[in-house]
Amino acid sequence: MALLITEECINCDVCEPQCPNDAITMGDEYYVINPEKCTECVGHHDTPQCMQVCPVDCIEPDPQWQEDAGQLMEKYKRLTA
User: Fold this and answer.
1) Cross-strand pairs, 59
2) Are 38 and 23 spatial neighbours (Cβ–Cβ below 8 Å)?
3) Cα angle at 68 between 63 and 5, to 5 degrees?
4) pTM over 0.70
5) Does the keyword Nucleotide-binding apply (predicted)?
6) How confident is the model at residue 1 (pLDDT cuts 50, 70, 90)?
7) What is the signed CA dihedral for 35, 38, 42, 45, rounded to 10 degrees?
């Protein structure tokens, strides 16, 4: 499942450089995650790096993007091909 950044985001800029897939960008009001690129760091790290560094815990699973570990790995392979 892809992740999303909630409106509690304080635009601290620490999550964006941590994303190995360049899925995090600045939106109109706060950072956003492109679910087409988000693999929850599968293929790169054991845990989602953006969630690890977020000081306000505003990153959570996106309920609209239900993906299991296998699907995330396939997305990782497609993105890094």
Assistant:
1) 5
2) yes
3) 35
4) yes
5) no
6) confident
7) -150
Compute the Cα dihedral for 50, 51, 55, 59 and give only its sign: positive
| 73 HSE (CA, 13 A, CB side) | 4
41-58 residues labelled b (16+ CB within 10 A) or e (exposed): bbbeeeebbbbeebeeeb
pLDDT at 58 over 90: yes
Structure tokens at 20: 């190995």
Question: In this structure, what token pair is assigned to residue 37?
Answer: 């690129």
Structure tokens at 40: 């929850």
